[in-house]
Amino acid sequence: MDRFSKFHPIFHFLYFIGMFVLVVSVYNPFFVLPSLVGALLYEVKIRGKEALSSLKFSVVMILVIGLFNMLFAHYGLTVLFTIGDTEFTLEALFYGINQGFVVAAMVLWFGIFGRVVDSEKVIYAFRFAPKIALLFSMVLGFIPRFTKKLGDIETAALALDGGKKPKNKLKAALNNLSALVTYSLESSIITADSMTARGYNPKAVRYSRYKFKFADGVLIALSAVCLFYVIFAKASDRITFVIDPRIYSKTFDVLAFLLFLLLSFLPLITDLTEEFLWKISYAKN
Question: How far is 234 from 21, CA to CA, in rounded Å?
Fold first, then answer.
């Protein structure tokens, strides 16, 4: 049961835009980490065991960016070890890990956005600009479609080679990419011809099944309050975290942290609340 994805498209767009802005702009590990955890828990709630791939990706991304930054950026006072004349510091490693948290959180939230906001919601939200809505919805639809097609191309290429892995992986990857580009161009032409043949008119009146409810208004107001207060706390230096030359939290606003925590776990909270109410209703009957 995914109650969060059933809310009004306007709320979804405002919520995800707010999350993207906060994750990128706040850049405080006390805020970025809850955002990452909230996205992971929602993934587990919706996808179950399939969400383990997201967890593995997040761990690898964080470790790679953290180690890369420590190896090539040298600042801070806490030296972990020295190789020759080069000092590798805890501050550089911590900054890289925090950067990995940001990247992993953004990727997870974009993935959730792609599953929650389908093409119909995009067209509804941008109905004042139908051509932009159509383009955006087609892009969202092409991403999973082309990802699946790339897997099919790789499987076919592997079968043609008798199940043997290619010796030149770079050449094989370029050949697969070339086949995918050819397929995407042909698919685009077929889609355009099909829409023309069916008399597509971007200005035509469309039926919408979305109705703005009281719960949507409450969630929009709640999200707006959380978003604006956290931005205010960031702009007024109430949630400042310092990494160079030493790692410490300069200022910390408890209310901003709690509101950001609520915003990060809002999808999971709405789903769990819906399940709890449904179970109570079922028990009464």
Answer: 12
